[in-house]
Amino acid sequence: MPLKKGSSKATVSSNISELHTGKTYRKTAKKFGKKKADKQAVAIALNQARKSTRKPTRRQVAKSVRRTMGHAS
Questions:
Q1: First to last CA, the chain
Q2: Extended beta strands in the chain, E state
Q3: Looking at the domain assignment, is residue 2 inside a domain?
């Protein structure tokens, strides 16, 4: 299941829980240990929260405008 967008505590918490049940977590835990896998899950969830509160850059806006106008990028 994809991660939820938003920066509330509940959203971040559910994203961390979601990351703890995936294949990536198991592979990371097996290779580097549980502690590093836990840190990585938290970092990914916080990064998702940060991205959801950012405004789009000029380049992103221009790209979306081109798409809506029907031009190829």
A1: 29
A2: none
A3: no
For residue 9, the 8-state DSSP code is: H
What tokens were used for 63?
A: 């790209």
Indicate the number of domains in the chain. Answer: 1
Residue written as token pair 């992103």: 60
User: Distance (Å, rounded) from C-alpha 37 to C-alpha 42?
Assistant: 9
6-40 b/e (C-beta count within 10 Å ≥ 16 → b)? eeeeebbebbbebbeeeeebeebbeeeeeeebbeb
Q: What is the residue range of 16's domain?
A: 9-69
Taking only the tens place, the pLDDT of each residue in 18-40 is 998 888 899 999 999 999 999 99
- Nearest-CA neighbor of 15 among 43, 35, 56? 43
